[in-house]
Write a structure and sequence with these properties.
The chain is α/β, with parallel strands linked by helices. It has twelve helices and five strands. It is globular, with a radius of gyration of 21 Å.
């Protein structure tokens, strides 16, 4: 079956090398402005995926992101930010990239073309039907991702995807596809640009909305964040000061004693 890869179509702009820096930036910015509008059209599909993820995580399952190149890196980034931001174990949201951790920094040749490695990578984590796997691929044709989702479907594991082409093989494979159609890139085929931005926005939505649904945010504050640096300790102290109407020193003492904003506030209110 054939389909149109709009992410590979010619840019709307030409003779880029003749543009001034100011013109380049203006044109790139104009293209970037279209991305949130494309994401908006996919909000119902994003919501459906989040419902599936929340259901599984509440039952003790995990969320896996899988991708190659830029798509894989974005998944790894989003997964790696969940523990410090929301205080969850690093085994709750897991990012897998074709070629392994080496590929986070350097391209691993032909890793994305494997039709076996994706499923093998999932098996390293003993993936089960309690989990949910989201394949990320701007093109929607990455063998590493598609084959992994096919295997997941066979084993009764929930599958979703984030892609930027309509009707792609990946969308047809995932049980819950998300398609954000951003059109041709400013530099033809450079899907790290608009497509990458779209994927990042969707990943932000998935992880943030999921963690809010799991009770990891109170009001609008990250009450379970890890205290991994002075900035976060200061932020946590201010949260406690504002919530309990107490002085900075007392708030800081509570935070360091109980290890999180949530625990500090709860212990103070129930003493």
């Amino acid at each position: 079956m054939s389909f149109t890869k709009t992410t590979e179509e010619d840019s709307y702009y030409n003779h880029l090398e003749k543009m001034s820096i100011e013109k380049l930036l203006s044109n790139i910015n104009n293209e970037d402005k279209t991305v949130p509008l494309a994401v908006e059209k996919a909000l119902p599909e994003i919501a459906t995926v989040i419902e599936q993820v929340v259901s599984r995580l509440k039952s003790g399952g995990r969320l896996f992101y899988m991708g190659a190149g830029t798509s894989g890196r974005l998944g790894v980034v989003d997964a790696s930010e969940c523990p410090p931001t929301f205080g969850v174990s690093d085994n709750v949201v897991i990012g897998l990239i074709a070629g392994g951790d080496t590929a986070i920094r350097s391209a691993v040749e032909f890793a994305e073309d494997s039709t076996e490695q994706g499923w093998k990578d999932l098996q390293e984590y003993a993936v089960t039907d309690k989990d949910f796997v989201i394949g990320i691929a701007a093109s929607g044709t990455t063998p590493y991702v598609i084959s992994a989702l096919e295997a997941c479907n066979t084993h009764g594991i929930g599958t979703g995807c984030i892609t930027c082409n309509a009707g792609s093989p990946l969308s047809l494979t995932a049980a819950y596809p998300i398609e954000v159609i951003v059109g041709p890139e400013f530099v033809t085929g450079s899907s790290r640009m608009k497509a990458g931005t779209a994927q990042k926005l969707v990943l932000n939505m998935i992880s943030t909305a999921t963690m809010i649904q799991l009770g990891k945010v109170k009001g609008n504050k990250m009450v379970d964040m890890q205290l991994s640096n002075n900035k976060l300790v200061d932020r946590g102290t201010r949260m406690i000061m504002n919530a309990l109407k107490i002085e900075e020193q007392k708030a800081n003492e509570l935070l360091l004693k109980y290890g999180s904003v949530r625990n500090a506030i709860d212990s103070y209110e129930h003493k």
